[in-house]
Amino acid sequence: MSRIDDxxxxxxxxxxxxxxxxxxxxxxxLDVTAQTIPALAEVGASIxxxxxxxxxxxxxxxxxxxxxxxxxxxxxxxxxxxxxxRCVRKKTRMGLIAMxxxxxxxxxxxxxxxxxxxxxxxxxxxxxxxDLDAARDVKMLTDDCDMSFSLLVAPxxxxxxxxxxxxxxxxFVYVLARVGITGxxxxxxxxxRRVEELRRITALPxxxxxxxxxxxxxxAVTESADAAIVGSALVRRMGQADDPVxxxxxxxxxxxAGLARHRR
Length: 264
Hints:
Structural class: alpha/beta
Shape: globular
CATH topology: TIM Barrel
Largest sheet: 9 strands, parallel
CATH class: Alpha Beta
Strand order of the largest sheet: 5-4-3-2-1-9-8-7-6
CATH architecture: Alpha-Beta Barrel
Distance between the termini: 22 Å
Helix content: 40-55%
Number of helices: 12
């Protein structure tokens, strides 16, 4: 059982839903990232997704793509991200998940990457661009390290492909609220029907992301799903703020106020 399993189990037992903010590691600086993670735990975040900067981010809109570009210009490496997590893990027991391109995992070597991530203190991985054959190998490694492993399920994913993706997931399933790329949206996504469909084929928690930007969006998503994932809206605010940590703390506190409760 991973820490992610424990978090969702405890939330379900209490009738609570989870907020999962996304941060680009090293943006606007490594020090800011290290300070922001424990700050978010204090204001209602249950799990933080930490994006490892990559030169060609998959499915990311302009805000996150630019943040990764800036982090790479600053020299941020996967080893730097592991070191941040190693330090932060001493301060918080919240869930920490690496969002990482398969190219980085493959370049380092899957066994070395997964074990390094686990030793640093990561509780799980999301690899959005991995193919299913490679995912099977990584899943064995994450299972061995008691880490979660989550793949993305698009609104258009169905049939045998959907079954295969969900079979490879552990911890939770990452459900895309919309087709296209990440980014802020005005309207809340309609995910109730999709969540109900997925509940019929998996008992895993369902975390919904892509275009979740406000507390009202968080409410709309978590009325049916187990968690809401917020990325671009948070990353943009941090990039524009004089005090990125305080800005992140204030914004995530407001988002957490929108979390719906489920009947136990």
